[in-house]
Amino acid sequence: MNQNGIAVVLASGRPIESLALFSQDVLHLDTFKIGFNGAIVANQHGKVLAMELINNQDVIEVTRLAQQLGINVNFSTPTKWINFSVQVNDDRVDKYNETLTEIRCHSLAQLQLLMDDRPIKVLKVGMHIVDQKKLWVMKAAMQGMALNVVQSDREFLEATRRGISKYSGFQQLGKVYKWQADHALVFGDYENDYELIQRAKYGVAMANGLAKLKSVAWQVAPTNDEDGVAQIINKYDWVMPVKEE
Questions:
Q1: Could you tell me the domains of the chain?
Q2: Which of 34, 94, 156, 183 has the fewest CB atoms within 10 Å around its CB?
């Protein structure tokens, strides 16, 4: 693809480092990367072009609600995961536990102490909530904050700063490289892909994706298990240039 002048962009709720490994080990391509659902954007060489942070007051409020509901929360920062867990497995914890990649907090007071101790840059909030009633209570409450709240699966709730999404990440790349949504072929299957599918001229929803995505998509691709992405790319000659007769 790269040799044919096609830029490949990976957009995900995952961190940039994870997308870089996937690009190298699986795709064997140099890809542009939109991580944490648009909160961080990098070029094909890994240079960060944009980073959008969640307000610390919203971080505190999400933690307060999570503590009330008994929900564990993962806060993504550029360098660490802050895991807020209501289950304390170590009675000796009196501040917070920290490793090279992770910080663990077990109360709102501990998180506040951590934030007073150092500047915290939270890019994304993530929660795995099996109890659907709790999920909808948390989702409704977070929608009242300065957050963009989406589900990346039936039991996974994610949030970035309001106005930040995979589509806003694509817009950031567009400003730098003069790209337009009319020239992009994009694929998605869940709620965090909705805006991108809706706004791109060639938005493709996967057959295994949500009905609301299919309703706004240009095309519906076969499922992931059927290599639906590859089928659409090959069908419309997005990889190989069309040969002149």
A1: 1-52+165-178 (3.40.50.1000), 56-161 (3.30.1240.10), 180-239 (3.40.50.1000)
A2: 94
